[in-house]
Amino acid sequence: MEREGETSVVVAVVTEPRFTQRYRDYLEKQKLLDRQHRVQKLRDGMVALPVLAETLPERQLQELRNRVAPGSSCRLTQLLDPLPSKKARVCSPAQSLCLEVRRWVEDRGVTWCAELEADLPRSWQRHGDLMLLSEDCFQAEQWQSLEPELWETVASALGVQRLAKRGRVLPDGTRTPSVTLLLGDHGWVEHMDNGIRYTFDVTQCMFSFGNITEKLRVASLSCAGEVLVDLYAGIGYFTLPFLVHAGAAFVHACEWNPHAAAALRNNLEINGVADRCQIHFGDNRKLQLSNAADRVNLGLIPSSEEGWPVACQVLRKDVGGVLHIHQNVESFSGRKPQPLGSSDTRKEHGPHPQKIITDKQGNGTTGNVRGDMLPSASKPEWHSWAESTATQIASLLHRVHGGVWRTQILRVHPVKSYAPHVDHMVLDLECRPVL
Ligand SMILES: C[S@@+](CC[C@H](N)C(=O)[O-])C[C@H]1O[C@@H](n2cnc3c(N)ncnc32)[C@H](O)[C@@H]1O
């Protein structure tokens, strides 16, 4: 989410300083030049011109190299915390949006009022040249007589070519965002994230910027040789880092939203890993796969509980594996985060107390096999959720595969704050049959 004053990353075209003006003219003509950020000199003497897209097609880079400025070298980079341009420093994006929309509205004889001003967007998500506005804007009736030209003014003020507006994520299980395209002829966008390309249609699929830390963590795991099942694959937010960076040998990716499955198929292709993934289109609870996975990802919030039985079913019966279980966990107001409990407990739980063992490490932290530690502060509710989940999974594994199962909490970690007193958590749970 891009908000006033927040840091960001922009894509920029890099060339030699003597070609700056020609590059600038070309990018301006193509409506690609990002006027909110300054052209920057890089340490190696090259210059970087910020652009409004997430990436430029090779065809355009070649045009710059060969036709616009023959002899120039041209490549793409990402600028972290790009410097604001003079224009942006004088006026924040929200202020310049307000000024431009107001001027345009008054030119059409409509009286500007506080209601209209309060109804302008305050936050938005940039997807390259498409700006996705929050749902709480442009709700006043007066706007209707000004559409569709209004959207061109808004887009131009925000420095983009396409515009869409968000509604609520539909509670239909597919996490489909009800997004309306206001300007432009399609909702396909592209993101480059940790070296992985993701394309998808913003009007049909969701993209969680807030899960970035978890995607990076997944990418840093070492899963060489492992078979993984991603029960809620979406467009590949976790499937791709597991394949591209963590070195998973094969991923079974489950997805029931046809638009997300189509985007996933495309993303596997463009990242060169399609041969190591099978998409299981449909309801994962009916998945015809068992006793196959070393690792299962259950990336669904508010809860992935409906996927627990199938997660146990697909886990290898002989050696077990690791589950990554996502869940929104509520904490009660007025209670401060506390250091993790330091009890050294090895608990046995019913209904088959002799068969189900959950095991915590007893050193005041919960370290995983790679030595990651829990944050020093943790809420008691996170802990109880993790323990109760570990117990339930052990019981499910016994029911599905038979025998005695031991579940061990490797790590329980917040991904993001979802709402006041609600945290999106991930539990890494090691599940092993006791021989
Ligand atoms: C939250 S989204 C994508 C999650 C992604 N792992 C992330 O955190 O960014 C969850 C995805 O699971 C899919 N999904 C939900 N329930 C499902 C089910 N029972 N079977 C298959 N796919 C399901 C939805 O269509 C959606 O694309």
Automatic annotation (TrEMBL):
Top-level taxon of the source organism: Eukaryota
CDD domains cross-referenced by the UniProt entry: AdoMet_MTases (cd02440)
E.C. code: 2.5.1.114
Keyword annotations from UniProtKB, A to Z: S-adenosyl-L-methionine, Transferase, tRNA processing
All residue ranges annotated as the SAM-dependent methyltransferase TRM5/TYW2-type domain in the record: 124-433
Region of interest called Disordered, as start-end residue ranges on this chain: 332-381
Pathway given in the UniProt record: tRNA modification; wybutosine-tRNA(Phe) biosynthesis
Reaction catalysis annotation: 4-demethylwyosine(37) in tRNA(Phe) + S-adenosyl-L-methionine = 4-demethyl-7-[(3S)-3-amino-3-carboxypropyl]wyosine(37) in tRNA(Phe) + S-methyl-5'-thioadenosine + H(+)
TM regions (residue ranges): none
Pfam families named among the record's database cross-references: TRM5-TYW2_MTfase, TYW2_N, TYW2_N_2
Role summary: S-adenosyl-L-methionine-dependent transferase that acts as a component of the wybutosine biosynthesis pathway. Wybutosine is a hyper modified guanosine with a tricyclic base found at the 3'-position adjacent to the anticodon of eukaryotic phenylalanine tRNA.
Protein's UniProt name: tRNA wybutosine-synthesizing protein 2 homolog
Native organism: Microtus ochrogaster (Prairie vole)
